[in-house]
Amino acid sequence: MSPAPRRAAVDGVSVLLLTHPGGTVVDQVLDTLGDQQPVPDRIVVAGLSADSDEGSQALAHPLTGRGVEVVLRPPLVGAGEHPLAAA
Question: What is each CA distance from 38 to 42, 70, 74, in whole angstroms?
Fold first, then answer.
């Protein structure tokens, strides 16, 4: 039996979370990511702006106090209907 393959060392972990206002409960996702090992270095939340309540909550999440960078990317302006909306 051959030995198990060696894993590459992990220098950093980034996570991309795709959401929209009123979508995924970002706080719950951030809580879950905070329980992971290793804890992500950066979490990019695409679909929320910093001036929204959800965006403000994400930026104030306790993970930021642990050195995790939370970056918000606002929704596209003029994008129209949400692409996952039922037809």
Answer: 12, 16, 27
Give per-residue pLDDT as tens, 48-59. Answer: 999 999 999 999
The reported pTM is 0.74
What residues of the chain score a pLDDT lower than 70?
1, 8, 10, 77-87
* Residue at 17: amino acid letter: L
For residue 57, which phi and psi values (nearest 5 degrees)? -65, -40
SS3 category, 14: strand
Q: In what order do the strands lie in the sheet with 14-18?
A: 14-18, 42-46, 69-73
Phi, psi angle pair for 71, to nearest 5° = -115, 130
- What number of other Cβ atoms are within 10 A of residue 47's Cβ? 22
Q: What is the DSSP letter of 57?
A: H
Q: What does the pLDDT read at residue 6?
A: 77
